[in-house]
Specification:
The structure is a single chain. With about 290 residues, the chain is an alpha+beta fold. Among the domains are: about 100 residues, Helicase, Ruva Protein, domain 3 (Orthogonal Bundle), CATH 1.10.8.1040; about 90 residues, Chitinase A, domain 3. The protein contains 11 helices and 6 strands. The strands form 2 sheets. It has a 4-stranded antiparallel β-sheet with strand order 4-3-6-5. Strands 1-2 form a two-stranded antiparallel sheet.
Length: about 290
C-alpha cells in the first residue's frame, strides 16, 4: 500500500529552519547580512538579499558559487532591481491585481516565518508521533477495492446497459462506450480506497459482494455509473518507522494550526464578504 494513502492529514507547507545561529554567531551573521554588495541609484543591495536571491534561484548557498557565478548572479539581481524600480515609477505596484499578489506573497512569507519561529523548539516526541500514527490507522478503511464501471450521461442509458448485462453481454465490451478513460481498460479502475472516490460511488462499491454488479445505476456529479466489484483485499498500515517523517510533518502542521486558531480567536475579526444570492426559482426549474 502506498504511504500517501495512509496519511490523511495534509501537512501544510512549513519551511523549517535547519539550525539557527545563536549568541555571538547570530550577531555576526546579522552584521554580515547587512553588508552592501552593490548600490543602485543610491539604494543598497545587501549581502542578505543577495544570499536569499542565490538560494532561491539556484537552490545553493552563495558560498558554493565560484567568482564568475557570483558575478552573474549579482548582475541578474541588479537587473531585477532596475526593472522593478522602473515598474514602481510607472505605478504598476499600485494596480489592484499586482498589489493583491504582492500582498499575498508578503503574508505567505510572514506566515512561514511565524511557523518557523513557533515550531523551532516544538519537535514532536515519539509519543506524539505514535499517537498520530494510531489516530490515522483508526481512520483507515479496512479494505481496498478493485472495480469496473461504465459512466454514461443519463439514468436511462445506464438502465439500458444493466439490461444488456442481464441478457449476457460482456461488461468489458459495453465499457467501450463509457465516458470515462477507463473504457480503454474495460472499465477497470484498479485498486482504490473508498476515500479516493466520491461518496455515492464508494458507498455503492462497499455494498457489493465480490463479482456482483449493482442492481440500479448510481448517480454522481460525473454522471450515471454501472459498477461491478471484481475483488476486495485487506489493507495493512505501513510500519510506524516507515512513515515517521510524514507523521512528523502532520504533527507539526496540527501544532501550528492550533496556534493559528488561538491567534484568530484572540483577534477582532469582522467578516464582510457578501454571500452570493441563490435564485430559488431557477433552482426549482432544474
Amino acid at each position: 500500500m502506498k504511504i500517501s494513502r495512509f496519511l490523511t492529514v495534509a501537512a501544510v507547507g512549513i519551511a523549517l529552519a535547519a539550525c539557527q545561529p545563536k549568541g555571538d554567531a547570530a550577531d555576526a551573521a546579522n552584521e554580515a547580512a547587512k553588508k552592501p554588495v552593490a548600490t543602485i541609484n543610491g539604494k543598497t543591495i545587501t549581502q542578505g538579499t543577495f544570499d536569499a536571491f542565490v538560494q532561491s534561484a539556484t537552490g545553493r548557498p552563495a558560498s558554493e558559487l565560484d567568482a564568475e557565478q557570483r558575478k552573474r548572479a549579482l548582475d541578474s539581481l541588479i537587473t531585477m532591481h532596475v526593472v522593478a524600480g522602473q515598474a514602481q515609477k510607472d505605478g504598476l505596484d499600485k494596480e489592484s491585481a499586482l498589489a493583491a499578489e504582492l500582498e499575498l506573497m508578503r503574508l505567505n512569507m510572514l506566515q512561514q516565518a511565524a511557523a518557523e519561529k513557533y515550531l523551532k523548539d516544538k519537535t514532536p516526541t515519539d509519543e506524539e508521533l505514535k499517537a498520530e500514527y494510531d489516530a490515522q490507522v483508526a481512520q483507515m478503511a479496512p479494505n481496498e477495492y478493485r472495480a469496473r464501471h461504465i459512466l454514461v450521461p443519463t439514468e436511462i442509458a445506464a438502465t439500458q446497459i444493466l439490461e444488456r448485462l442481464n441478457r449476457g453481454e460482456k461488461f468489458e465490451a459495453l465499457a467501450k462506450d463509457s465516458l470515462d478513460s477507463s473504457r480503454d481498460r474495460g472499465g477497470d479502475l484498479g485498486w482504490f480506497s473508498p476515500a479516493s472516490m466520491v461518496k455515492p460511488f464508494a458507498d455503492a462499491v462497499m455494498a457489493l459482494k465480490k463479482g456482483e454488479t449493482i442492481a440500479k445505476p448510481v448517480q454522481t456529479q460525473f454522471g450515471w455509473h454501472v459498477i461491478r466489484l471484481d475483488d476486495i483485499r485487506q489493507v495493512e498500515p505501513p510500519p510506524f518507522e516507515q512513515v515517521k517523517a510524514q507523521l512528523n510533518q502532520a504533527v507539526l502542521a496540527k501544532k501550528f494550526r492550533t496556534y493559528s486558531e488561538e491567534l484568530e480567536k484572540a483577534a477582532k475579526v469582522e467578516r464582510k464578504l457578501e454571500e452570493a444570492k441563490v435564485d430559488t426559482k431557477s433552482e426549482e426549474k432544474k
